[in-house]
Design brief:
This is Glycerol-3-phosphate dehydrogenase. Its EC number is 1.1.5.3. It comes from Ciceribacter thiooxidans. With 505 residues, the protein is α+β, with helices and mostly antiparallel strands. It folds into 3 domains: 2-43 and 155-231 and 338-389, FAD/NAD(P)-binding domain; 70-151 and 233-332, D-Amino Acid Oxidase, Chain A, domain 2, CATH 3.30.9; 402-504, Alpha-glycerophosphate oxidase, cap domain (Helicase, Ruva Protein, domain 3). It contains 13 helices and 20 strands. The chain is globular, with a radius of gyration of 23 Å. Bound molecules: flavin-adenine dinucleotide. Flavin-adenine dinucleotide is lined by residues 11-17, 34-37, 41-44, 46-50, 52, 177-178, 211-215, 219, 223, 237, 276, 321-324, 359-362.
Length: 505
């Protein structure tokens, strides 16, 4: 069945695919997007979750990337203040350490002044013997620099881009794999296989965008029949989540003897997130899993700094993902460029293809703008850049307005506990009111699945955000997987499986 002709067909529902679909739909193109699994189930939910310039990339002279990323920090914060917020980082150092203090100070000076910093505070120096940030650290760290970057709920940023793209008219095929894409006269003919039913449908598009991250070469070879392609270098990165190691709201930036760095970040109120690692990966990106060597590396690197060591049995969760880095021939994984590359293929008479290589969460919006510019050159310009001054769904409140939003929600729904109201605003922003609707007691929220998860939120996620499994809800739309027992997660899975498919949106 041929379902229609779109201007643009995007393969891949990670941050880059969803960002491009949203930008293009907002400019008036007709857009379709297919994601073979759940949104953000690839690399885009396995990141360190930082909206950052990338201080360490300065060592590799990545000034273009760092500048663009620094400028994006406040643009993205204003665009989605519910899921993005500022975070201060404490960078302890000691005499005779890996990098001299003057070099770090110079790096941070450049970081503060390269561009875009209006609301975020500048770098300061800390005396760790007096500042509370020194409390959990070994006493040999007397001084530290404190600088600004940002935090993001990565998986929610992806799904909110998909939601907004759909609200602007894009057709979204979730859990639908592109099995083939062939040029046919002056357009693409694309076959999509729906995961649950196995049904295959066809659509046509004037331009194809391959935004499949770590799968980009696989799609080129398997779905498009290109032989011997090699554009991306797959680099595994893993994180561990341990029970809360410190009370401070600031994160730590630790330098390791191997020249790498790791972060220790306050996470989901009761936990600490530690990561990441960097090593080449050759398997299927879907199977990536933390190795015992990575666990040891992260525990021992963090234990060099924390007075109380991090042990294996502190770990409550781990996750891993694969960076789809553009292969620039760097010898070490940690040195491969983090910048993105957009390549358009197709001669004058052929339907064009845009391949997306590399990229960061932080620069996704700019990547999408550049991608849509290239699309315009090929199939005709529509609209103008618009996303810099836009809001993601629920993000229509001032960047510093989070506490006021929590207050407003609590005023209207006085039965909500403080932490529940905070979580709802952090996840849904102003749309938390739509989610709760006319509820006036907790009983109105429907079945209780554990912690503060109720039926009305699960239904919202199925209806508005394409959630189909308990994993979608517990690990990507929320992080309540850290709170629910196995029994509770199983009950949720059974409940969701019994909800009619049409509710899935
Ligand atoms: C360990 C780690 C830490 C990171 N930390 C940060 C950070 O702190 N800040 C930052 O800015 N960036 C960070 N990044 C980088 C960032 O996460 C990635 O650049 C970004 O998520 C890549 O997104 P993507 O859309 O290209 O790929 P993905 O998120 O992998 O999306 C590609 C999608 O394509 C789908 N797909 C594949 N084949 C098909 C097909 N045939 N049909 C349909 N769909 C298909 C996949 O299922 C997948 O969902 C980190 C990355 C890693 C690995």
């Amino acid at each position: 069945m041929v379902q229609g002709l779109y201007d643009i067909f995007v393969i891949g529902g990670g941050i880059n695919g969803c960002g491009i679909a949203r930008d293009a739909a907002g400019r008036g193109y007709s857009v379709a997007l297919a994601e073979m699994n759940d949104f953000a189930s690839g690399t885009s939910s396995g990141s360190t979750k930082l909206i950052h310039g990338g201080l360490r990339y300065l060592e590799y002279y990545e000034f273009r990337l760092v500048r663009e990323a620094l400028m994006e920090r406040e643009v993205l914060w204003a665009m989605a203040p519910h899921i993005i917020w500022p975070l201060r980082f404490v960078l302890p150092f000691q005499k005779g350490g890996i990098r001299p203090a003057w070099l770090i100070r110079l790096g941070l000076f450049i970081y503060d002044h390269l561009g875009g910093r209006k609301l975020l505070p500048a770098t300061t120096t800390l005396d760790l013997r007096r500042d509370p940030a020194g409390k959990p650290l070994k006493p040999l760290f007397g001084k530290a620099f404190e600088y600004s970057d940002g935090w993001v709920d990565d998986a929610r940023m992806v799904v909110l881009n998909a939601r907004d793209a759909a609200d602007r008219g894009a057709r979204i095929f979730s859990r639908s794999r592109v099995v083939s894409a062939r040029r046919e006269a002056d357009c693409w003919s694309i076959e999509i296989k729906e995961h649950e039913t196995g049904a295959v449908s066809s659509v046509r598009a004037r331009m194809l965008v391959n935004a499949t991250g770590p799968w980009v070469d696989k799609v080129l070879s398997q779905a498009m029949g290109n032989s011997s392609v090699h554009n991306v270098r797959l680099v595994q990165g893993s994180h561990i989540v341990v029970r809360k190691k410190f009370n401070d709201s600031r994160a730590y930036f630790f330098q390791n003897p191997d020249n790498r760095i790791i972060f220790a970040i306050p996470y989901e109120r009761d936990f600490t997130l530690i990561g990441t690692t960097d090593h080449d990966y050759t398997g299927d990106p879907r199977d990536v899993k933390i190795t015992p060597e990575e666990v040891n590396y992260l525990c021992s690197a963090a234990s060099e700094y924390f007075a109380e060591p991090i042990r294996n049995d502190d770990i409550v969760w781990t996750y891993s993902a694969v960076r789809p880095l553009y292969d620039d021939g760097a010898s070490k994984a940690q040195e491969a460029t983090r910048d993105y590359v957009l390549k358009v293929e197709g001669n004058m008479c052929e339907a064009p293809l845009l391949n997306v290589f590399g990229g960061k969460l932080t620069t996704y919006r700019r990547l999408a703008e550049h991608a849509v510019e290239k699309i315009g050159e090929k199939i005709g310009v529509r609209g103008t850049p618009w996303t810099a001054a836009s809001h993601l769904p629920g993000g229509d409140f001032p960047p510093t307005g989070y506490a006021a939003e929590v207050r407003k929600l609590k005023e209207r729904y006085s039965f909500l506990g403080e932490h529940h109201a905070e979580r709802l605003i952090r996840s849904y922003g102003t749309r938390a009111h739509d989610l709760l609707g006319s509820a006036s007691t907790s009983a109105d929220l429907g079945r209780h699945f554990g912690h503060d998860l109720y039926e009305c939120e699960v239904r919202w996620l199925m209806l508005q955000e394409w959630a189909r499994t308990s994993g979608d809800v517990l690990w990507r739309r929320t992080k309540l997987g850290l709170r629910l027992s196995q029994e509770e997660a199983k009950n949720l899975e059974e409940y969701m499986a019994a909800v009619p498919a049409q509710l899935a949106g």
